[in-house]
Amino acid sequence: xxxxxxxxxxxxxxxxxxxxxxxxxxxxxxxxxxxxxxxxxxxxxxxxxxxxxxxxxxxxxxxxxxxxxxxxxxxxxxxxxxxxxxxxxxxxxxxxxxxxxxxxxxxxxxxxxxxxxxxxxxxxxxxxxxxxxxxxxxxxxxxxxxxxxxxxxxxxxxxxxxxxxxxxxxxxxxxxxxxxxxxxxxxxxxxxxxxxxxxxxxxxxxxxxxxxxxxxxxxxxxxxxxxxxxxxxxxxxxxxxxxxxxxxxxxxxxxxxxxxxxxxxxxxxxxxxxxxxxxxxxxxxxxxxxxxxxxxxxxxxxxxxxxxxxxxxxxxxx
Length: 318
Ligand code: UT7
Prior knowledge:
There is one protein chain. The longest helix is centred in the C-terminal third of the chain and has 23 residues, at 209-231. The protein has helices at 26-30, 37-43, 58-73, 97-105, 121-135, 158-161, 209-231, 248-258, 269-272, 279-289, and strands at 9-18, 22-25, 48-51, 82-86, 111-115, 140-148, 166-176, 185-188, 196-197, 206-207, 240-243, 264-265, 298-305, 309-316. It is an alpha/beta fold. The site of oxa(dethia)-CoA (UT7) has 20 residues, from helix 2, helix 6 and helix 7.
Protein backbone atom coordinates (compact mmCIF):
# COMPACT_ATOMS: atom_id res chain seq x y z
CA UNK A 1 0.00 0.00 0.00
CA UNK A 2 1.22 3.48 -0.90
CA UNK A 3 0.60 6.10 1.77
CA UNK A 4 1.23 9.82 1.92
CA UNK A 5 0.54 10.59 -1.73
CA UNK A 6 -1.41 13.75 -0.99
CA UNK A 7 -0.32 17.36 -0.78
CA UNK A 8 1.82 18.61 2.12
CA UNK A 9 -0.83 21.06 3.16
CA UNK A 10 -4.17 22.57 2.19
CA UNK A 11 -5.50 26.10 2.04
CA UNK A 12 -8.60 28.09 1.15
CA UNK A 13 -8.27 29.82 -2.22
CA UNK A 14 -11.77 31.24 -2.61
CA UNK A 15 -14.74 32.15 -0.42
CA UNK A 16 -18.34 32.92 -1.34
CA UNK A 17 -21.51 33.88 0.50
CA UNK A 18 -25.26 34.12 0.08
CA UNK A 19 -27.59 36.18 2.25
CA UNK A 20 -31.32 35.93 1.50
CA UNK A 21 -33.07 39.00 0.10
CA UNK A 22 -35.50 39.52 2.96
CA UNK A 23 -33.96 41.51 5.80
CA UNK A 24 -35.84 41.19 9.09
CA UNK A 25 -35.40 43.92 11.71
CA UNK A 26 -35.79 43.50 15.46
CA UNK A 27 -38.92 45.66 15.27
CA UNK A 28 -40.47 43.15 12.87
CA UNK A 29 -39.64 40.29 15.27
CA UNK A 30 -41.17 42.35 18.10
CA UNK A 31 -44.48 42.35 16.23
CA UNK A 32 -44.58 38.56 16.63
CA UNK A 33 -43.24 38.01 20.17
CA UNK A 34 -42.88 39.94 23.41
CA UNK A 35 -39.44 41.49 22.89
CA UNK A 36 -37.90 44.78 21.78
CA UNK A 37 -35.18 46.13 19.55
CA UNK A 38 -33.42 47.42 22.65
CA UNK A 39 -33.50 44.04 24.46
CA UNK A 40 -32.17 42.16 21.43
CA UNK A 41 -29.39 44.68 20.75
CA UNK A 42 -28.28 44.72 24.37
CA UNK A 43 -28.51 40.99 25.19
CA UNK A 44 -27.60 39.49 21.82
CA UNK A 45 -26.13 42.26 19.65
CA UNK A 46 -28.30 41.52 16.61
CA UNK A 47 -29.79 44.43 14.60
CA UNK A 48 -31.17 42.37 11.72
CA UNK A 49 -31.10 38.91 10.15
CA UNK A 50 -32.06 37.46 6.75
CA UNK A 51 -34.99 35.09 6.22
CA UNK A 52 -35.04 32.84 3.15
CA UNK A 53 -38.12 32.96 0.95
CA UNK A 54 -39.26 31.72 -2.44
CA UNK A 55 -36.36 30.58 -4.62
CA UNK A 56 -34.06 30.42 -1.60
CA UNK A 57 -34.12 26.77 -0.58
CA UNK A 58 -31.16 25.35 1.33
CA UNK A 59 -29.81 24.00 -1.96
CA UNK A 60 -30.40 27.30 -3.82
CA UNK A 61 -28.44 29.24 -1.20
CA UNK A 62 -25.61 26.67 -1.12
CA UNK A 63 -25.35 26.69 -4.92
CA UNK A 64 -25.23 30.51 -4.98
CA UNK A 65 -22.49 30.74 -2.33
CA UNK A 66 -20.53 27.93 -4.00
CA UNK A 67 -20.67 29.65 -7.39
CA UNK A 68 -19.12 32.76 -5.85
CA UNK A 69 -16.43 30.72 -4.04
CA UNK A 70 -15.52 28.93 -7.27
CA UNK A 71 -15.36 32.24 -9.17
CA UNK A 72 -13.11 33.70 -6.47
CA UNK A 73 -10.81 30.67 -6.64
CA UNK A 74 -10.46 30.79 -10.43
CA UNK A 75 -11.47 27.10 -10.56
CA UNK A 76 -14.47 25.55 -12.26
CA UNK A 77 -16.94 22.91 -11.08
CA UNK A 78 -15.06 20.27 -13.10
CA UNK A 79 -11.97 20.86 -10.93
CA UNK A 80 -13.68 19.80 -7.68
CA UNK A 81 -13.48 16.14 -6.68
CA UNK A 82 -15.08 16.35 -3.22
CA UNK A 83 -17.98 18.40 -1.84
CA UNK A 84 -18.76 18.54 1.88
CA UNK A 85 -22.04 20.19 2.84
CA UNK A 86 -22.18 21.16 6.51
CA UNK A 87 -25.78 21.67 7.59
CA UNK A 88 -28.19 20.74 10.37
CA UNK A 89 -31.32 22.03 8.63
CA UNK A 90 -31.73 19.74 5.62
CA UNK A 91 -35.40 19.59 4.64
CA UNK A 92 -35.31 15.78 4.63
CA UNK A 93 -32.67 13.18 5.53
CA UNK A 94 -32.83 11.22 2.26
CA UNK A 95 -31.05 11.93 0.01
CA UNK A 96 -28.33 14.19 1.41
CA UNK A 97 -28.24 17.63 -0.18
CA UNK A 98 -24.52 17.43 -1.09
CA UNK A 99 -24.96 15.35 -4.28
CA UNK A 100 -27.81 17.61 -5.48
CA UNK A 101 -25.68 20.72 -4.97
CA UNK A 102 -22.81 19.11 -6.89
CA UNK A 103 -25.19 18.20 -9.72
CA UNK A 104 -26.67 21.71 -9.84
CA UNK A 105 -23.16 23.17 -10.03
CA UNK A 106 -22.30 20.91 -12.96
CA UNK A 107 -19.63 18.87 -11.16
CA UNK A 108 -18.56 15.58 -12.64
CA UNK A 109 -19.25 12.76 -10.13
CA UNK A 110 -17.42 14.24 -7.13
CA UNK A 111 -17.50 12.62 -3.71
CA UNK A 112 -20.37 14.46 -2.01
CA UNK A 113 -21.87 14.16 1.44
CA UNK A 114 -23.64 16.06 4.22
CA UNK A 115 -22.01 16.62 7.59
CA UNK A 116 -24.02 17.55 10.66
CA UNK A 117 -22.03 19.09 13.49
CA UNK A 118 -24.53 21.95 13.89
CA UNK A 119 -22.88 25.34 14.40
CA UNK A 120 -19.42 23.69 14.45
CA UNK A 121 -20.13 22.13 11.05
CA UNK A 122 -18.01 24.43 8.89
CA UNK A 123 -14.88 23.84 11.00
CA UNK A 124 -15.49 20.07 11.04
CA UNK A 125 -15.91 20.12 7.25
CA UNK A 126 -12.82 22.27 6.70
CA UNK A 127 -10.75 19.81 8.69
CA UNK A 128 -12.18 16.84 6.76
CA UNK A 129 -11.33 18.64 3.49
CA UNK A 130 -7.78 19.36 4.60
CA UNK A 131 -7.28 15.76 5.76
CA UNK A 132 -8.67 14.36 2.49
CA UNK A 133 -6.26 16.52 0.49
CA UNK A 134 -3.26 15.60 2.62
CA UNK A 135 -3.95 11.86 2.46
CA UNK A 136 -4.48 11.98 -1.30
CA UNK A 137 -8.21 11.14 -1.15
CA UNK A 138 -9.11 14.43 -2.86
CA UNK A 139 -7.32 17.22 -4.69
CA UNK A 140 -9.76 20.12 -4.59
CA UNK A 141 -12.65 20.32 -2.16
CA UNK A 142 -15.70 22.55 -1.95
CA UNK A 143 -16.70 23.09 1.68
CA UNK A 144 -20.14 24.59 2.33
CA UNK A 145 -21.86 25.77 5.50
CA UNK A 146 -25.53 26.49 4.78
CA UNK A 147 -28.68 26.68 6.87
CA UNK A 148 -32.37 27.46 6.56
CA UNK A 149 -32.98 27.73 10.26
CA UNK A 150 -36.32 29.46 9.84
CA UNK A 151 -37.74 26.04 8.82
CA UNK A 152 -36.89 24.70 12.28
CA UNK A 153 -37.36 27.67 14.61
CA UNK A 154 -40.69 28.57 16.20
CA UNK A 155 -41.38 32.20 15.19
CA UNK A 156 -43.52 32.59 18.32
CA UNK A 157 -40.82 31.52 20.79
CA UNK A 158 -38.77 34.54 21.81
CA UNK A 159 -35.91 32.47 23.25
CA UNK A 160 -34.95 31.34 19.73
CA UNK A 161 -36.83 33.40 17.13
CA UNK A 162 -34.81 36.54 17.87
CA UNK A 163 -31.51 34.78 17.20
CA UNK A 164 -31.57 32.76 14.04
CA UNK A 165 -31.39 33.61 10.35
CA UNK A 166 -30.70 31.86 7.03
CA UNK A 167 -27.69 31.93 4.70
CA UNK A 168 -24.81 30.06 3.11
CA UNK A 169 -21.04 30.33 2.89
CA UNK A 170 -18.59 28.26 0.86
CA UNK A 171 -14.84 27.76 0.56
CA UNK A 172 -12.69 26.14 -2.11
CA UNK A 173 -9.78 24.20 -0.56
CA UNK A 174 -6.77 22.99 -2.55
CA UNK A 175 -3.45 21.29 -1.85
CA UNK A 176 -0.32 23.38 -1.24
CA UNK A 177 3.26 22.91 -0.11
CA UNK A 178 2.81 25.58 2.54
CA UNK A 179 0.06 24.50 4.99
CA UNK A 180 -2.76 27.05 5.24
CA UNK A 181 -5.14 25.11 7.48
CA UNK A 182 -3.86 24.12 10.91
CA UNK A 183 -4.80 20.99 12.87
CA UNK A 184 -8.37 21.01 14.11
CA UNK A 185 -9.19 20.95 17.81
CA UNK A 186 -12.59 19.39 18.09
CA UNK A 187 -14.81 17.70 20.62
CA UNK A 188 -18.31 17.08 21.81
CA UNK A 189 -20.41 16.58 24.93
CA UNK A 190 -23.39 14.40 24.14
CA UNK A 191 -24.53 14.52 27.78
CA UNK A 192 -25.74 18.03 26.89
CA UNK A 193 -27.72 16.88 23.83
CA UNK A 194 -30.90 18.47 25.15
CA UNK A 195 -29.31 21.94 25.33
CA UNK A 196 -30.24 22.61 21.69
CA UNK A 197 -32.59 20.05 20.19
CA UNK A 198 -35.28 19.29 17.66
CA UNK A 199 -36.89 16.22 19.24
CA UNK A 200 -38.51 14.82 16.12
CA UNK A 201 -39.78 15.87 12.71
CA UNK A 202 -43.08 17.18 14.09
CA UNK A 203 -41.43 19.63 16.51
CA UNK A 204 -39.25 22.74 16.33
CA UNK A 205 -36.00 23.76 18.01
CA UNK A 206 -35.79 24.01 21.81
CA UNK A 207 -32.80 25.63 23.47
CA UNK A 208 -31.48 26.14 26.99
CA UNK A 209 -30.07 29.57 26.13
CA UNK A 210 -28.52 30.26 29.52
CA UNK A 211 -26.90 26.81 29.68
CA UNK A 212 -25.36 27.19 26.22
CA UNK A 213 -24.23 30.72 27.06
CA UNK A 214 -22.47 29.50 30.23
CA UNK A 215 -20.82 26.60 28.39
CA UNK A 216 -19.60 28.82 25.54
CA UNK A 217 -18.18 31.50 27.83
CA UNK A 218 -16.38 29.06 30.15
CA UNK A 219 -15.20 26.11 28.02
CA UNK A 220 -14.18 27.53 24.66
CA UNK A 221 -11.31 29.95 25.31
CA UNK A 222 -8.99 27.00 26.16
CA UNK A 223 -10.02 25.34 22.88
CA UNK A 224 -9.04 28.50 20.98
CA UNK A 225 -5.67 28.56 22.75
CA UNK A 226 -5.09 24.91 21.86
CA UNK A 227 -5.85 25.64 18.18
CA UNK A 228 -2.95 28.13 18.20
CA UNK A 229 -0.62 25.75 20.07
CA UNK A 230 -1.29 22.92 17.61
CA UNK A 231 -0.75 25.26 14.66
CA UNK A 232 2.52 26.49 16.20
CA UNK A 233 1.47 30.14 16.36
CA UNK A 234 1.09 32.57 19.26
CA UNK A 235 -2.30 34.07 20.04
CA UNK A 236 -0.59 37.43 19.57
CA UNK A 237 0.08 36.48 15.90
CA UNK A 238 -3.63 36.04 15.15
CA UNK A 239 -4.79 38.82 12.78
CA UNK A 240 -8.44 37.80 12.55
CA UNK A 241 -10.73 36.00 15.04
CA UNK A 242 -13.99 34.60 13.73
CA UNK A 243 -15.93 32.63 16.34
CA UNK A 244 -19.37 31.24 15.58
CA UNK A 245 -21.81 34.15 15.51
CA UNK A 246 -24.12 33.06 18.33
CA UNK A 247 -24.33 36.11 20.58
CA UNK A 248 -22.22 39.29 20.59
CA UNK A 249 -21.75 38.91 24.35
CA UNK A 250 -20.24 35.44 23.82
CA UNK A 251 -17.93 36.83 21.11
CA UNK A 252 -16.81 39.70 23.36
CA UNK A 253 -16.29 37.36 26.33
CA UNK A 254 -14.03 35.14 24.20
CA UNK A 255 -12.08 38.15 22.93
CA UNK A 256 -11.53 39.33 26.51
CA UNK A 257 -10.55 35.87 27.78
CA UNK A 258 -8.04 35.45 24.93
CA UNK A 259 -6.70 39.03 25.19
CA UNK A 260 -7.06 39.56 21.44
CA UNK A 261 -6.82 43.36 21.54
CA UNK A 262 -5.10 43.71 18.16
CA UNK A 263 -7.00 41.19 16.04
CA UNK A 264 -9.91 42.07 13.75
CA UNK A 265 -13.01 40.42 15.22
CA UNK A 266 -15.86 38.87 13.25
CA UNK A 267 -19.08 40.55 14.41
CA UNK A 268 -21.32 39.70 11.47
CA UNK A 269 -24.01 38.61 13.96
CA UNK A 270 -25.02 42.28 14.13
CA UNK A 271 -26.20 42.25 10.51
CA UNK A 272 -26.81 38.56 9.85
CA UNK A 273 -27.93 36.94 13.11
CA UNK A 274 -27.00 33.38 14.02
CA UNK A 275 -26.78 31.22 10.89
CA UNK A 276 -25.24 28.11 12.53
CA UNK A 277 -22.74 26.40 10.20
CA UNK A 278 -22.90 29.31 7.73
CA UNK A 279 -21.89 31.95 10.26
CA UNK A 280 -18.09 31.61 10.04
CA UNK A 281 -17.71 31.66 6.23
CA UNK A 282 -20.32 34.46 6.02
CA UNK A 283 -18.44 36.57 8.56
CA UNK A 284 -15.02 35.90 7.04
CA UNK A 285 -16.18 36.67 3.50
CA UNK A 286 -17.62 40.00 4.62
CA UNK A 287 -14.48 40.94 6.57
CA UNK A 288 -12.34 40.29 3.48
CA UNK A 289 -14.73 42.31 1.28
CA UNK A 290 -14.63 45.24 3.68
CA UNK A 291 -10.85 45.12 4.12
CA UNK A 292 -11.12 44.26 7.82
CA UNK A 293 -9.21 41.06 6.96
CA UNK A 294 -6.56 40.74 4.25
CA UNK A 295 -5.33 37.96 2.03
CA UNK A 296 -2.57 36.07 3.86
CA UNK A 297 -3.80 37.06 7.34
CA UNK A 298 -3.76 34.39 10.03
CA UNK A 299 -7.32 33.72 11.13
CA UNK A 300 -8.54 31.72 14.10
CA UNK A 301 -11.99 30.21 13.56
CA UNK A 302 -14.06 28.49 16.25
CA UNK A 303 -17.45 26.86 15.79
CA UNK A 304 -19.69 25.59 18.60
CA UNK A 305 -23.26 24.55 19.12
CA UNK A 306 -25.79 21.72 19.25
CA UNK A 307 -24.50 18.29 20.18
CA UNK A 308 -22.87 19.89 22.00
CA UNK A 309 -20.03 20.13 19.49
CA UNK A 310 -17.08 22.43 18.97
CA UNK A 311 -14.20 22.72 16.51
CA UNK A 312 -11.60 25.31 15.64
CA UNK A 313 -8.42 25.82 13.66
CA UNK A 314 -5.98 28.46 12.47
CA UNK A 315 -6.05 29.24 8.76
CA UNK A 316 -4.57 31.62 6.18
CA UNK A 317 -7.10 33.97 4.62
CA UNK A 318 -7.44 33.57 0.83
O1 UT7 B 1 -25.83 28.77 17.85
C1 UT7 B 1 -26.19 27.87 18.80
C2 UT7 B 1 -25.66 28.25 20.11
N1 UT7 B 1 -26.62 29.07 20.80
C3 UT7 B 1 -26.21 30.00 21.63
O2 UT7 B 1 -25.03 30.24 21.74
C4 UT7 B 1 -27.23 30.75 22.44
C5 UT7 B 1 -26.62 31.19 23.72
N2 UT7 B 1 -27.57 31.88 24.60
C6 UT7 B 1 -27.93 33.16 24.39
O3 UT7 B 1 -27.51 33.78 23.45
C7 UT7 B 1 -28.81 33.80 25.44
O4 UT7 B 1 -28.96 32.92 26.53
C8 UT7 B 1 -30.22 34.20 24.94
C9 UT7 B 1 -30.09 35.33 23.92
C10 UT7 B 1 -30.92 33.01 24.30
C11 UT7 B 1 -31.06 34.72 26.10
O5 UT7 B 1 -30.37 35.81 26.71
P1 UT7 B 1 -30.11 35.82 28.28
O6 UT7 B 1 -29.37 37.05 28.56
O7 UT7 B 1 -29.47 34.52 28.68
O8 UT7 B 1 -31.58 35.94 28.83
P2 UT7 B 1 -32.29 35.05 29.97
O9 UT7 B 1 -32.81 33.80 29.37
O10 UT7 B 1 -31.38 34.96 31.16
O11 UT7 B 1 -33.49 35.96 30.37
C12 UT7 B 1 -33.31 37.22 31.06
C13 UT7 B 1 -34.63 37.95 31.13
C14 UT7 B 1 -35.78 37.09 31.62
O12 UT7 B 1 -36.67 37.93 32.31
P3 UT7 B 1 -36.66 37.99 33.92
O13 UT7 B 1 -36.98 36.59 34.37
O14 UT7 B 1 -35.29 38.42 34.31
O15 UT7 B 1 -37.74 38.99 34.23
C15 UT7 B 1 -36.42 36.61 30.36
O16 UT7 B 1 -37.78 36.27 30.53
O17 UT7 B 1 -35.01 38.38 29.81
C16 UT7 B 1 -36.27 37.80 29.46
N3 UT7 B 1 -36.20 37.47 28.05
C17 UT7 B 1 -36.54 38.32 27.08
N4 UT7 B 1 -37.00 39.56 27.12
C18 UT7 B 1 -37.23 40.18 25.96
C19 UT7 B 1 -35.77 36.30 27.49
N5 UT7 B 1 -35.82 36.39 26.15
C20 UT7 B 1 -36.30 37.63 25.88
C21 UT7 B 1 -36.57 38.32 24.68
N6 UT7 B 1 -37.02 39.60 24.78
N7 UT7 B 1 -36.38 37.76 23.48
